[in-house]
Amino acid sequence: MSKKKKFINFRDNLIARSEEARTVRKIVAIIIISLVLIFLVGGISGYMYVKSALQPVDPENEEEVSVDIPIGSSTSTIATILEENGLIKDGRIFSFYIKFKNESDFQAGEYTFTTAMTIDELIESLQSGRVIAEPVHTITIPEGKTIEEMAAIYSEKLHFKKDDFLEKVNELSYIEQLMETYPTLLTEEILAPDIRTPLEGYLFAATYSFYEEEPSVEAVVEEMLKKTQTVVSNYQEEITAKEFTMHEAITFASLVEKEASTMEQRNKIAGVFYNRLADGMKLQTDPTVLYALGEHKDRVLYADLEIESPYNTYYIDALPIGPIANFAESSLEAVINPEDTDYMYFLHDNEGNIHYAETDEEHLRNREQYIN
């Protein structure tokens, strides 16, 4: 090969290697830049996520959330509890934050927090053992009360009027919203045309604590519905086994509630109602007449029994169209587990005692003996 050709080959190889080196450098530069951008974006995103996770969940929301921290709870357990209750955004970040700040000595107990609290405020409360805050209002709703009676109780204790409460619990759009929130509790049955008040019977009898100076009607109603949901959910399978809808079970419980005051009475009266229904008899319970009349009377008259209402159990031969009052859990238990007897009748004497009978003749004798 001539010297000239060797030179040309050498030059061509040199140019090729030079171009290849430039290409490699470009690729390496692109990879490095890409990696830097990825790390930069990832770092910024991670920083923003951690920063957000350390902020209050909802700085404007002062609604109280009660949580129970069991004895012996680890940091990760506490973080999980707080995250599940919507008080922090990320339990892992909370745990890392606690370890980073070397925080410890958290105390067990039932706490009341809000989603507006910062993580440092949550930590301080857990360390100091500041448990449930003192309520501004504590209001007891007795068993056997109608919504109208409850509205009167709340209007005496809180800032809104009785009519404000009644208007809200009869507002169709609000009821439909609640039905979406509590689909297993509030069904289409509460919207039947002859239902007087959709939520009648569904606002549970209990003592309620409110931590705001002026809680809204909605806050009150939904606190009561949450309690009802908690109670009745424990009996869902039994209610289904009895072939009742939720509405029918609550309606039945309201009748038992209005007719009895002790667990023994409730079990027996529930048994009487079952016997009458099985025999095709009308339930004939006076509280349904009074509810149909829409007024309180010390004595139900024979003329009152004739009122044509789907609530009047002297007029219909089944359960009323809906509940006639709220109920105690023991009344629902009696509906689920009634006492098995042959009694078909009962009556109250003037001293509040209840007398049962198996036959109409026996019932008439009880009436003559105990009713003045």
UniProtKB/TrEMBL annotation:
Subcellular location: Cell membrane
Entry keyword DNA-binding: no
Main location: membrane
InterPro entries: MLTG-like
Site positions for Important for catalytic activity: E259
Broadest EC class assigned to this enzyme: lyase
Bilayer topology annotation: Single-pass membrane protein
Alphabetized UniProt keyword annotations: Cell membrane, Cell wall biogenesis/degradation, Lyase, Membrane, Transmembrane, Transmembrane helix
UniProt-listed Gene3D superfamilies: Endolytic murein transglycosylase
Entries under CDD domains matching the protein: MltG_like
Transmembrane portions of the chain: 27-50
EC code(s) of this entry: 4.2.2.29
Catalytic reaction list: a peptidoglycan chain = a peptidoglycan chain with N-acetyl-1,6-anhydromuramyl-[peptide] at the reducing end + a peptidoglycan chain with N-acetylglucosamine at the non-reducing end
Protein family membership: Belongs to the transglycosylase MltG family.
Role this protein plays: Functions as a peptidoglycan terminase that cleaves nascent peptidoglycan strands endolytically to terminate their elongation.
Protein name: Endolytic murein transglycosylase
